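Page 37, continued from 36.
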């Protein structure tokens, strides 16, 4: 999933999964100039749920969320999941 946050100063972007105790196992985060990617390796049904992108800068916080639905057993190949959240 992808989250884009722009502004001056450049916002700090973090990810979290809403509801549940999933800790982003096998997940990686990429951050480049306000663009933050959440990539989950070997995605499973357990990864399904609502994810939130949180952008914070200059004492202000903006949140955007998106649902990820995974059907089936452990998927070895990365599925095509592209969600853009503009903050």
């Amino acid at each position: 999933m992808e989250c884009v946050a722009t502004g001056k100063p450049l916002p700090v972007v973090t990810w979290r999964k809403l509801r549940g105790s999933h800790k982003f196992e096998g997940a990686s985060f990429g951050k480049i100039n306000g663009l933050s990617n959440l990539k989950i390796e070997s995605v499973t049904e357990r990864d399904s749920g609502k994810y939130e992108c949180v952008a914070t800068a200059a004492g202000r916080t903006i949140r955007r969320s998106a649902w990820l639905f995974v059907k089936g057993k452990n998927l070895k190949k990365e599925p095509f999941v592209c969600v853009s959240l503009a903050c």
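The mean pLDDT is 76. Flag for discussion at group meeting. The first strand starts at residue 2 and ends at 4.
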